[in-house]
## 1
Amino acid sequence: MSETTRRRPQAFTRGNGAGGFRLAWRKGTNTVMLALCALAVVAGVVPLLWILWYTLRQGIAALTPGFLTSMPTPVGVPGGGIFNSIVGSAITVGLGVLIAAPVGVMAAMFAATRANTPLGLALRFGTDVIAGVPSIIMGIFVYALIVLPQGHFSAFSGGVALAFIMLPIIIRTTEEMLKLVPGSLREASLALGATEWRTSMNVLLPAALSGVVTGVMLAVARAAGEAAPMLFTAFGNPFLSFKLSEPIATLPHTIFVYAISPYEDWRAKAWATALVLIALVLGLNVLARGLTWWRVRKVGSVTR
Amino acid sequence: MPPWTEIPQVSPFESLAVKEMRGEASIQESRISIQDVSVHYRKFRAIADVTLDIPTNKVTAIIGPSGCGKSTLLRSMNRMTDLVPGARVTGSIQIDGQDILASSIDVVDIRRRIGMVFQRPNPFPKSIFDNVAYGPRLQGLRGQALQERVERSLKSAALWDEVKDILQQSGLALSGGQQQRLCIARTLAVEPEVILMDEPCSALDPVATLKIEELMRTLTADYTIVIVTHNMQQAARVSDVTAMMMLIEGQKTGTVIEASDTKTIFTKPKDKRTEAYVTGRFG
């Protein structure tokens, strides 16, 4: 071992000559910067809390016991609810998941195993581009693609629009989750004489499943709140409908219609619907992240 | 020919033994014949001009200092090098007269016939039964036949007695040595002809290591084993044939400098570098 130069131990008293002032200045800067960062966090969280609080206050007034289960009543008639909007949201979002989840998971499986090939890179680029397309443009696109040829608005076109919006989210989260699965598992499966497809389906996907489900939940939370595409596709419906070929009401679209109406009780109902939607979206997000946190606690990593 | 030499075809994966009984092939001395094999990773040449014969039903050890290409050579034998982007293998590796580096070869079938056990145990996050049954299920085995295959494999891997009551528990709940034996059982379950082992004991404690070395000796009755190890004592204990690999002078490329039966390599090696390595002068 080489010799270390020995230094005379310094006295650790405060204000000890030149060292004291420098140290105090650095400490002071540190405290000020930390305080500014904390302030920034507060500034970011406060609007969220304020929105929640305001919506809660405005919405709770119109939230009657039968709000979630009864049909809308004509203007001026008390009572009434948003049952048709809830059903409509469930149908369109459900259809969107049915289309986007298999396609998204399979695309992600392909991209994850071919990450650095031209096709894999093109897929990732394409996904990012679709993710950035404004949702109203998605709505117009599906309008031109499905509504015009069919000649009428429909729940089906609404579901397709939501599927396009959900697709990039599902692809991205699934791909990230698949990449987190240790490469040794893939090697072990291939070394046993399994094909790439079997390896992806029987080893990689089950290991990443909880993460994939979380991704789908986050995509659902996003799609459930999209109003703009619904203006061109599902179009809204004051009556209860389960048919895919007819227009259908959805929660965000109903908020839009009620909020800009000239009727006081409808505007109050808009707040209540907004409260329901926020509760749904927030609940899904919290559930998704809570599942991830619980998974990490239980198993020690995000994948099994 | 007498009627009892007509062996009915029992499976699409005909073993060499069946073919030999029919007179279509002769069990050769060497199971794998490696000739002038070089492996390039993009521009980097990892191993160059390796010529080696792997004898049937024996344990062949590949030893050498770190970074000389032992694992690369091992992985080229079952085409696992294909998984590395930009990897290129030249030369020929013959098994039963077929060159497995040819592009017409079914890689999936090769990997079933030549199994691999890795350095760190990597059981799937499934139950012990499902781990061992993974391979046979790929081949279409179900029900009673599957149960029997799993039991046979676990017995061959000397793990049956320890896990026969906990088959539904996760494979990850076992100890390191048990997990490695589970991986060996999983490999045995597809009924390979050759088992490649890439430093199988380096992540295990001495007791587990000893168990696996005993296992290797019993397995040579039915399988050909190739093991890469940086532990010379292990190579001396376990192997019948040893191949010494080393980096070529002044390059980062490795090659086999000497290969013969273990006793000769460790007592009267021909190459000076081999002698220096096995006597511990460097490594």
## 2
Amino acid sequence: MTGIDERLAALAEHAPVPHAPVSADVRRGRQRLRTRRLAATGAVATVAVVAGLAWGGTASEPDDRRAVDRPPASDPVLADVVDGLARAADDDGDGTVDASEMIALAQKSRPGRRGGTVFRFDTGTQWAAVVGRPCPAGWTCAPATLPGSDDAAVAVSSDFTQVAAEYGDDVYVITLLERESLTLEQVRRSVLAYRVPRP
Amino acid sequence: MARRDEAFAAYVARRRPQLFRTAWLLCGDPHRAEDVVQAALTRLYVAWPRVQRADSVDAYVRRAVVNAHLDEGRRPWRREAPASDHLPEEAVPAPEEHGDLWAALRVLPPGQRRVVVLRHWWGLSVEETAADLGISPGTVKSQTSAALAALRASLQGENA
């Protein structure tokens, strides 16, 4: 139709565009992001508890010397759950934060092993606060490359592997349990290389 | 969070009027249009790092506006009114010189209206429109053709 573009443009110019402060849009966005992160963190805590139970008992178990039974090294169900959580934390389900890539990177960092089981999944916002501390004794920490991420790093100890990745302003840390058997006390006392500071 | 806020705020300051006009053309009511824009921008903020990296901010937010408009139309209190998907009669006092186009746009089915707004207001190609709406290029073409025919008939009727 001749001139429809121009006529639509002229009509749109008459739209009663409100004066809406940009700060209000930022505030609403922040609020939504916070809600999503809280939801994801809560769900991840649940996963960690479930995983902990799968490994052999509860923290109140009197005999902490008892070995923790690991689930199969490749735990697709748990990996899928964590992957879903990572995506949910980033967006409405179609984000590019790929927990399976992070897990694959962790497994590649330990050649000759079957790969660990996801133990923790944390999210934060400050890359330097997560990876900036000196590498703890018993750990090897190194920068890494992870497709789609702005920054990535891997830390390996005899008991754990950690992968930290920064996507935009968001930081994600996956921790895998690597040892065949650990007592609950050993798990509790473990020093991790990458930690997301509590707000 | 500062980097995200700064870049997001700059984008919103630049694009918000156009997004509002898009929503206004789609739903015809300034209050609903503002709701649609707010919902779309909230989604955009959450996804900001990813869409900015992919250099697809405009495409993402356009889709978010269209989806928010669809979602808004699906809400129960909207569904109660059978004609809710059509632009409300008294929603906006269209300026005299555009009254005929406003009325013609108002009677288009929502799907055709979306196609017209994306193709003739945003200036998108058939393929881009199809991607935004999640429909096939063939459907975009047929809806565009039907919409233009309907607009032509309405406008000729007004002028007769």
